[in-house]
Amino acid sequence: MCCRYYMEMSPELRPYVQAANMSRLGLKMIARLGKPLVTKGEVRPCDMVPVIAPNSSGQRSVYPMIWGFNVTGLDKPVINARVETAHEKKAFKEAWTSHRCIIPASWYFEWAPSKDGKSKEKDKYALQPSGASVTYLAGIYQMQQYRELTYPVFTILTREPSEELRKIHDRMPLILPSSAIDDWINPKSDVDNLLKLAVTDLVAEKA
């Protein structure tokens, strides 16, 4: 799963941050929802962050979105969705088909049982693609309303981990190469082919 990630103000992430800061929608969300736009540091569920999605013309753009789907019957926002079943789940089916997005991050965090097996506390790891400075997390988004404001929320897709990462956790986020961003957010793309491009060669370091 993926329940925390980190944004470092790097040259690669700066354009996404700048675009989100200039968003009129973002200003409305800050005013109506009382949430700041998180652009650096550790990102948590329910935070508002920059997300890549298509504009009305189908071109790549950046929007402020809030992390977590509100699903009927559940008390907490859903922050992850399984890539294996998202296309058939009522809560995610429409978003899977027409509202796919990319969440740019520096790295994400995962927790694993301590190696000595004695401590109750888990070891925290920072993970990112080998040789890369940006981790492009694949997600889906939907629109919801609050106080007459319509705004986007997203959830991060997860998949089976590589054998190496299985030592840390039994799930990992779906990570795509930068070359696949435009195809991923295009509703007409063949998703099955894109899933084959998933990045699984990651570097894990104690955080």
Give a description of the structure:
- The protein is an alpha+beta fold.
- It has helices at 14-21, 24-33, 93-98, 181-185, 191-195, and strands at 5-7, 41-43, 48-54, 60-67, 80-82, 100-105, 107-113, 122-129, 135-146, 149-159, 172-173, 202-206.
- It has a single domain (5-206), classed as SOS response associated peptidase-like (hypothetical protein yedk fold, Alpha-Beta Complex), CATH 3.90.1680.
- Strands 3, 4, 5, 6, 9, 10 and 11 form a seven-stranded mixed beta sheet that branches. It has a five-stranded antiparallel beta sheet with strand order 2-1-7-8-12, with no helix packed on it.
- The two termini are 17 Å apart.
- The mean pLDDT is 94.
Task: Give a concise summary.
The chain is α+β, with helices and mostly antiparallel strands. It is 16% helix and 36% strand. It has a single domain, classed as hypothetical protein yedk fold (Alpha-Beta Complex), CATH 3.90.1680.10.
